[in-house]
Amino acid sequence: MIRWLLLLGVPFLLTFSQAVTPERPNILFLLSDDQSYKTLSCYPEALSGANTPALDRLARRGVRFSHAYMGAWCMPARATLLTGRHPHGIESMRMEGPYPGSVYDPKRCRFWPSVFRAQGYYTAHIGKWHTGIDSGFGRDWDYQIVWNRPRHPENAGKYYEEQLLYIHGKPERVSRYSTDHYTDEACKFIKGRPSATDRPWFLWLCYGAVHGPTTPAQRHLGTHKSDEVKLPSDILGPRPGKPDYLQKTQAWKLDSEGQIVAQKSGESFGDESGKRRKTYQDCIHQLLECVESLDEGVGRVLTALEESGQLENTLVVFTSDQGFATGEHGFRTKLAPYDANYRSPLLVSWPTRIAQGKVCTRPVNATDLVATFSALANIPIPWEIHGRDLTPLLRDPENAAWPHPCFFEATGDHFGEDVTRVMQQEPDRAEHHHVPWYAAVNDGRYKYIRYLKPGLPEELYDLSSDPEELTNLVHEHPNDAVLVRLRDLTVSELRRTKAGFVDQLPSLSPKR
Question: The whole model's pTM is what?
Fold first, then answer.
């Protein structure tokens, strides 16, 4: 065969290389905001009435991850997704000025889209930006239509209308419902790529939905008003075995009419509990109504991908920056280490290249997505990232060897060396909106939580028998071996990722 190719004048080495090296994929990265996995009807834990046909179809085309941990709240989740590093390893990022003002040094805190751009990708970002007033247009992004919240705090609450956008660096106020507007712009971008350039592209489409005030499109108002709503079993407590800080984060109360109503959430924007009485049922109905337009938008974007002939060479990823508890453990926010607060939906599809219609039960995190993008595009990231390439799980999600624990953390609004400074000098300040900082691991069955603020007990849950995390097993004698192993795994992950505070971890609280 080689001889015939040479006789024909065919450059064999190039031909062979092209035969075994797949074309670099386009990457469509869809990110929602504050969206619980329970709002997707393709998840078995879905809320009654959840209706997401487009996302369900995406799941059937690819791999649905049962346990994905993207971040504790908006800014650190996005910083992790842009760097491939956990917050303790992201240098120079900090909050500054009126919330959500934030800054970073782009020489110390580099974002991987700039690397892809330098290696031939056309990079685009549409939608919400929550990672410093510098949104990176012209450095990280070739194409950008961005709602830059840190740059304009006075516009930071406008999640759904009257947004001040920057379109390729120029400001413009847009009044349209944001979910629909972002979708239109994404479809326009996708349909325009084939004729505009032969470069592969990366599009990060960041919806603001379903973040508070969780405003549905007019066309969906009332569509879920008759849905059955079940109360989480520990919405009001008691919560034996849980830390006492949950009393400070209790977001629901029983009113004089015997109804459970919202009283506070800890959110800087979108908390309407002080303005009007809102029952638990009302909150769930409104949430599912807001999800409707998000699902429609995803469907339209996927249709644009198909109609433009780019579906088969596009890696599609859908996830959320974090979860959002709706009553579980008394919360109405993200932040905490429980799956209801932290765990995101995650769907990955690439027709003909990865498994289809499969579920992966191995837990993964945000840094793993960056490692996977790097591997599939064959573009090394020129700094140390903390994630592991998920390709084996994408190809064989049920049987691939995967010995890695899933590590995740919360360090509030602190990053890099600032985390270490607090841990060394002021450990009692290691909390954010009354939620203590923590490091946690999920090994595929057990979840272990170690708080970074002194004086708090550890937590251990068997997610196979207790998925709602109601029973803390940390004081159960039969689990001592599991507890020691997960303690060691947590410290091991902190050392692997060079956490500067690993030798300043608070002493473990004595058993009760």
Answer: 0.94
